[in-house]
Amino acid sequence: MRIIIAIIILIGATINAGAQSKKSNPKKDAVLKSIQNHEKELIKLSDDVWSYAETALKETKSSKALADYAESQGFRVKRGVAGMPTAFTAEYGSGKPIIGIMGEFDALPGISQKAQPTKEALVKDAGGHGCGHNLFGAGSLGAAVAIKELIEQGKLKGTIRFYGTPAEEAVGGKIYMARDGLFSDVDVCLDWHPDVEIAANMQSSQAMVDFVVEFKGKAAHAAADPWNGRSALDGLELFLDGVNMLREHVWPSVRMHYVIQSGGDVPNVVPEYSKVWMWVRDSKREGVEKVFARVKDIAKGAALMAGVESKITLQSGDYELLVNQKGAEALQKNMEAIGPIVYTEEEITFAKKIQEVSEGKQTGLDGGIHPLKLTKENPEGGSTDVGDISWLVPEITALVTTAPANAPWHSWAVVACGGMSIGHKGLVFAAKSLAMTMVDLYESEQLRKDIRAEFENRKGSHVYKGYIPDGPPPIPTSN
Ligand SMILES: [Zn+2]
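That is the input. Now the predicted structure with zinc ion docked in place:
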């Protein structure tokens, strides 16, 4: 009996010691406290960016709000980097390790929405944060500020660098920042993305290339002297026929989509100009390259058949995301230590109302921490320029709930949640989990080495080359 009791006491003591050593990391406690202290400011920052709702490379006020805040917190801010007036870096500390964290802030056009669960524009025809990038930018900056305070107090050694990365939804601002070498000295980089569940991301994204094809022919009277004309529209139609026949001979993972931007003006003039804007996606960059090469040949063939000229212009493109399991595992532990997001009755009702309107199941919100999943061979559903950065430096990505499942993404529903407490709770959770993971990265050289070794192994001998044209980024000339 005595022995049994003694054993029970011993086991109890061991469990207690384990629990205590897990909890007692004063630096992690300090970053949590910092985020709590700055919570109101971070939410205001996010709400301001949400209300500006500025689209790609027009994010003047949004970028300024974030950069000004970083400056007020003592960061060294460089504005207008990589040839983009709205791109910036904010740095604190010195020497190695250099930990990067990215923040986006661009909106999508035409989806302005009030912070309410029924569809109603805040400003008619204006943009809206249908991907939650207002939360993304402010949340990441909050994590950077928490780390900066520990460096300032001499409790962590190294550099924290926040990247204000514009134009994710179009153009791909990060690719221009990468081209200028802004990521070349970073040890590990982090980011997060608004989502419908919480997870340390182990899912890759799709690689893609964005380009336009133009055809140039000769105008003539369509009835009086058509023999003198060469139709650019014929060229375009033959091209698209070729593309649509190609669909049968590509991997099921390939996606090709296009919009015709110009196909002539009136039927009685043989069109002398036509233009189609097209994206090709696949699970991996090498798959995209193969299909893109065939599409280029199809354009040449179509032009030859129609007796016109063709021209392909590369606009942008993304690499697939190179995931990092070691990094994701570190993040996962911190997410679990924070515990699930708890929602109020009002928030759950708000979410269900959105799900009702969008005809989804009314499941409410998912604030639980999902277990680590391995990456799928063929990811579906989209591309990101974070993918490009993940080929230059090991990347850790958090996914955090900021909207209910079944809410249509890139739409009013996500804009609504991002401007109220559901989104705010996601922002705070993201800031906390990323800051805690950065503490691990500063403190453990072994963790950094393991993450780097996995990165090198996954990357192999591939040499990164971003899908952007030569020359400066396409800065809009008006408004
Ligand atoms: Zn996004």
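The first strand starts at residue 76 and ends at 79.
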